[in-house]
Amino acid sequence: MGRPPCCDKEGVKKGPWTPEEDIILVSYIQEHGPGNWRAVPTNTGLLRCSKSCRLRWTNYLRPGIKRGNFTDNEEKMIIHLQALLGNRWAAIASYLPQRTDNDIKNYWNTYLKKKLSKIQNQSSSRDDHEEGFSSSQPSMSRGQWERRLQTDIHLAKQALSEALSPEKSTSLTHHDQKPSSSSSDQTLSTTTTYASSTENISRLLKSWMRNPPIKRSGGTTTTTTTTTTTTTTSSTNTTLPNNNVDLSEAFESLFGFESFESSNNNSDFSQSPDQDHESKPNIGNNAHQLPFSLLEKWLFDETVTTTTTQGKEVVLSDMILDENPNFF
DNA sequence: AACATATTCAACCGCAAGAAC
DNA sequence: AGTTCTTGCGGTTGAATATGT
């Protein structure tokens, strides 16, 4: 049976979000900040459940989300972090601050998993003749598995190092400079790689205008009859259905996100402690300032620290696995 | 051109943890 | 201490889109 769904109420809209709804949500969050999601549908008049609002914000609307193709570095990091952390997408996403866990999860499920299994098939067919050893990966001898794990850890370190290195990998580096960085040139650079909420929505708007969701479940026809709580929103709604490009541009100017973003570089809007990243290590922010060993330490402290049978903690990354047979 | 199949990804669902009462 | 509420997470779904026949 289980608990009834939180959104089982009548009158709660489901399905794809419309630009109108996005605007309402963003303008509300701009005013009140993220959090207290329960109050969002009530206060905005959105016919969405709180969960849906939070998800829309965290996955698409919040500033700092990068969309589009994953870079090689990102791919590497995902692969190795997945090897280290498993399907802890939120944890993995914390190392790629500009990507959402949903994005990473989708990318993994639709692309990386297949790619890796292909590679694994190829290598396992080569390894089949080798003598087997019963380990957690049956097709691999224990020594192989240990060595691979070591290699994975090493590569993950390397990938992390590359990704966080300030002089490398422009896209990643820029992303790492989250809005909390104070320098204005960093702000400029972030606007090229980070998408602010405005940019997110304006992009959505543009693509939406190109391909209006005609068949979508009442999406476009659902005019938000509630003349929403925020003045900005209500004025926006009146102009929405007509001028497409102007709309998105008007939207950008409406919220003045350039100033908004920069004014929030040190603010709590995108980095407020009570929101999405509250438990995340926020590596992107200061990665270029932190000694890398510290990051490593944090990474491995959290994820690879394990306990031996004697209850003594062992840091896996520091172990020479082959020399510690008792580990298994 | 029309249909079938595969792929992508936004959104939903249910569960768990922790906060609030 | 127990219950309820809120939020976050990971798995899954299904509509839209791309690709193949």
Automatic annotation (TrEMBL):
Highest taxon, organism lineage? Eukaryota
What InterPro entries does the record point to?
Answer: Homeodomain-like_sf, Myb_dom, Myb_TF_plants, SANT/Myb
Its keywords, alphabetically, are: DNA-binding, Nucleus, Repeat
Provide ranges: composition bias, Polar residues: 133-142
Name the CDD domains for this protein: SANT
Disordered as annotated region, ranges: 119-145, 162-196, 208-243, 262-287
Pfam families membership = Myb_DNA-binding
Any idea where the Myb-like domain is? 9-61, 62-112
DNA-binding among the record's keywords? yes
Per its UniProt record, what SMART domains does this chain match? SANT
Biased composition range(s): Low complexity: 180-196, 220-239, 262-272
Naming one, the record's GO cellular component terms include:
nucleus
Q: Where is the HTH myb-type domain?
A: 9-65, 66-116
Gene Ontology BP term (one): response to auxin
| Protein localization | Nucleus
Q: Per its UniProt record, what Gene3D superfamilies does this chain match?
A: Homeodomain-like
- GO MF: DNA binding
SUPFAM superfamilies given in the database record? Homeodomain-like
Instruction: Check the record and name the PANTHER family matching this protein.
Output: MYB FAMILY TRANSCRIPTION FACTOR, TRANSCRIPTION FACTOR MYB30
According to UniProt, the name of this protein is Uncharacterized protein
This protein's species is Cannabis sativa
